Amino acid sequence: MTDTPPRTRIQQRNRETILGAALEVFSQHGFRGATLDQIAQAAGLSKPNLLYYFPSKEAMHEALLAGLMDTWLAPLRALDPGGEPLDEILGYVHRKLLLSRDFPRESRLFANEILQGAERIRPTLEGELKTLVDQTAAVISGWAREGRIAPVDPYHLIFSIWALTQHYADFDVQVRAVLGPGKDDPFDGADRYLATLFSRLLTP
């Protein structure tokens, strides 16, 4: 069996351009609403050139989702069971909010996939994600039993963090419209508010 030859710099650049264009189109239109023609136009490449690098729309979508899940799980993996409980949970909230700020298209891609039934990432959700959340929930429950944080349902705490942080990416247009002119960056205020909210919830 022969090894796949390494990609040239031009090939690597074209792949990255295509994936960036696909991310933009998928995050706006979802998988079902996106077309190869839209992605080719966004990438500035011909459709045959697009298909030279990725054989189908599904292949582009799967490549994006594979990279996204690593990014998405990293903030939860960084939670230290040996750390100070409130600091660790607030650190997780902060990291998730930064993810929404820095990767809004990826957040919308993930949300669209969930809304459409998550058929392409269901094994990851039911496997790697569930295992990680179960482990984190056990840590949070242990902290609560020891009286180091207030009693709380660990799963619903994690769901709350997801909802309250990802909102700023998935509903960015609504957030900015409601805040109005002169408040272009909602994330500083959100960071302070969420730190206060979860501190009050979790302080014994």
UniProtKB/TrEMBL annotation:
Matches recorded under Gene3D superfamilies: Homeodomain-like, Tetracycline Repressor, domain 2
SUPFAM superfamilies membership: Homeodomain-like, Tetracyclin repressor-like, C-terminal domain
Domain HTH tetR-type stretches: 12-72
DNA-binding region: 35-54
Pfam family, one: TetR_N
Domain of life according to the entry: Bacteria
InterPro entries in the cross-refs: Homeodomain-like_sf (IPR009057), HTH-type_TetR-like_transc_reg (IPR050109), HTH_TetR (IPR001647), Tet_transcr_reg_TetR-rel_C_sf (IPR036271), Tscrpt_reg_YcdC_C (IPR013573)
Entry keywords, A to Z: DNA-binding
Keyword DNA-binding: yes
Gene Ontology biological-process annotations: negative regulation of DNA-templated transcription
Protein's recorded name: TetR family transcriptional regulator
